[in-house]
Amino acid sequence: MRTRPLKVALLGCGVVGSEVARIMTTHADDLTARIGAPVELAGVAVRRPSKVREGIDPALITTDATALLKRGDIDVAIEVIGGIEPARTLITTAFEHGISVVSANKALLAQDGAALHAAAGQAGLDLYYEAAVAGAIPLIRPLRESLAGDKINRVMGIVNGTTNFILDKMDSTGAGYQEALDEATALGYAEADPTADVEGYDAAAKAAILAGIAFHTRVHLDDVYREGMTEVSAADFASAKRMGCTIKLLAILERAADGESVTARVHPAMIPLSHPLASVREAYNAVFVEAEAAGRLMFYGPGAGGAPTASAVLGDLVAVCRNKLAEATGPGESAYTQLPVSPMGDVVTRYHISLDVADKPGVLAQVATTFAEHGVSIDTVRQQGKDGEASLVVVTHRAPDASLSGTVEALRKLDTVRGVASIMRVEGE
Ligand code: HSE
To answer: Where, residue-wise, is CATH 3.30.70.260 in the chain?
Structure first.
């Protein structure tokens, strides 16, 4: 057992950082035994030094993260600041000074993952980021390592707890979006500005990271098609129930049938109640992976929160420290397939479309003809009429998204179609 400690710089000491520091202190002996050397918190870089931080030696606190990284004795930096800057510059500085990095920063990895992996690789250092996707759930390492001998064809996940909480409330209580969001805010699940969660930006960043790892290619945040869930209504849930479905905000990553390209998307979708993801309640996350040899795997657990996220960070810290002692590095970026990311229009799936139409002869035929003209085959139609108006729900067979968009555009132009109340994809069948 080596007695000289491995020194850790903690960059950021918010909800996650403070839990990382606490676990490093309270579990020091276990961490030492598991790593094979003591691991020491050597400095904590923060923005507000005056804030009281229980359990952290005030002498470790600094506002100068760069100086902490440059002082010459740091082995590993843990970046839990979040956002693009100053995190990106600090991680780059760490690599320039021979320091491996553990990061929980999904936004940065989804945007600049390629450059950061390249910098780590050139420096012969580790970049680990288990906590960046789905909090405590072991996912990055299983995909990168345990499934490295298999071929992943599809990943479908609930990777945002806030939106899952809101959708679960809407499902179980019949509440509308705003009412469910208010409850999520009151309980501390949703932030004061929930945009990143409810508009799908958070899930899209995680989708980009997962797609790159699953398909051994580069997927940038901008490659991910994104739709938020603010338009999902109580009526949509009622429709979903009639079909034996519920509604989830899903990240869906697929290898094309010909294997020549991939798609990455985030949007609300109906899934059958029999699908394992349908039973993921409250703010939990879950990721369903379909691999050629392994078959179907489901990873489930808390996707956010201080202690769960710190668990993933600590797991990475142990791995990076072990690598360091072995004078090795873990697996770097694997992007050898160089598969292009196809646009959303190429995605093939089923659709549930609710239309408000005039209830008079020929309307159904007109609507059906519009679908046929765009090559979209109808599976079921349900109509409910009242006072000369009708609500028409059409569920299609599988069709390219571009064909569905063309259909909807044409439907909107029909005099007899008063409005397109909702369009929802149907997945997981
Ligand atoms: N805001 C995210 C969520 C957690 O609700 O799942 C951090 O990614």
So the answer is: 347-426
